[in-house]
Amino acid sequence: MAEGEITTFTALTEKFNLPPGNYKKPKLLYCSNGGHFLRIL
């Protein structure tokens, strides 16, 4: 499932254009594909 989370995270970062600084902070992101919340550490 780690691969799926990485793929989803990549898609979300491209969609929202988050600055690199946000990658280091814990984030709770919504996956529009599966409708699941993913916590990025």
From TrEMBL:
Which UniProt keyword terms apply here? Angiogenesis, Cytoplasm, Developmental protein, Differentiation, Growth factor, Heparin-binding, Mitogen, Nucleus, Secreted
GO terms for cellular component: cell cortex; cytosol; extracellular region; nucleus
The superkingdom of the source organism is Eukaryota
Q: What is its main location?
A: secreted
Q: Give the GO biological process terms.
A: angiogenesis; cell differentiation; positive regulation of cell division
Listed GO MF terms: growth factor activity; heparin binding
Question: Localized where?
Answer: Secreted; Cytoplasm; Cytoplasm, Cell cortex; Cytoplasm, Cytosol
Gene3D superfamilies hit by this protein: 2.80.10.50
Q: Which family does it belong to?
A: Belongs to the heparin-binding growth factors family.
Q: What does this protein do?
A: Plays an important role in the regulation of cell survival, cell division, angiogenesis, cell differentiation and cell migration. Functions as potent mitogen in vitro. Acts as a ligand for FGFR1 and integrins. Binds to FGFR1 in the presence of heparin leading to FGFR1 dimerization and activation via sequential autophosphorylation on tyrosine residues which act as docking sites for interacting proteins, leading to the activation of several signaling cascades. Binds to integrins.
- In Swiss-Prot or TrEMBL terms, this protein is called Fibroblast growth factor 1
The species is Homo sapiens (Human)
